[in-house]
Structures are given as C-alpha cells and as structure tokens.
Amino acid sequence: MRYKYRGRPDYLTFADGSGQIVFEGLALPGRDYDLPADNARVQALIAGGFLQEAVPAAKSRADLVKQDKKGKNNG
After folding, report:
1. From CA 17, how far away is CA 20, in angstroms rounded?
2. Does residue 45 surpass a pLDDT of 70?
3. Does the residue 36 lie in any domain?
4. 3-state class of 11 per DSSP?
C-alpha cells in the first residue's frame, strides 16, 4: 500500500510478512512510499500520525477534458 511519510527525516527499514526487506533508507517528509500494510511498525507509525495513506495522483488535464466531453463530469 502507498503511504505518505509525515515525520522528520529518518533512516527506516521495513520488511514484509516473510522478512523480505521492502524499504530501507532515508524516509523524507512529504514523499510517498510503498509499504506493507500488515507490518506492525507501519501500523504504529500510522497510529502516531507519521504515515498517512497516499492520495492517488490527479488525472492529467487532457483526461479530465475527455471526461467532460463524454458528460461524466457535468455536475
């Protein structure tokens, strides 16, 4: 799952359920990271407010115009 890091810069290591390291390095505030949702450390950082589920990237303007022309965004 993709999360946005909200803490101060810190060196972090995360492993998935099988012990395979999925992230090891400097975590920077405002950046998105793919982390395992079932990891206890990830859950602790979410509870502490240091990680937040990332919002999907916005669609390009061209995609939005195509949707408008199809009538999907006409409110």
Report:
1. 7
2. yes
3. yes
4. strand
In a domain, 75, yes or no: no
Instruction: Provide the token pair at 6.
Output: 């909200």
> What letter does residue 6 receive in the DSSP assignment?
-
- Reported as a single tens digit per residue, the pLDDT across 1-42 is 899 999 999 999 998 888 899 999 999 999 999 998 888 889
Q: pTM of the prediction? A: 0.66
The total domain count for the chain is 1
- The pair of structure tokens assigned to 15 is 């492993």
Range of the domain at 60: 2-70
Label residue 42 left, alpha or beta by phi (over 0 means left) and psi (-120 to 50 means alpha). Answer: alpha
Bridge partner residues of 26 (DSSP): 11
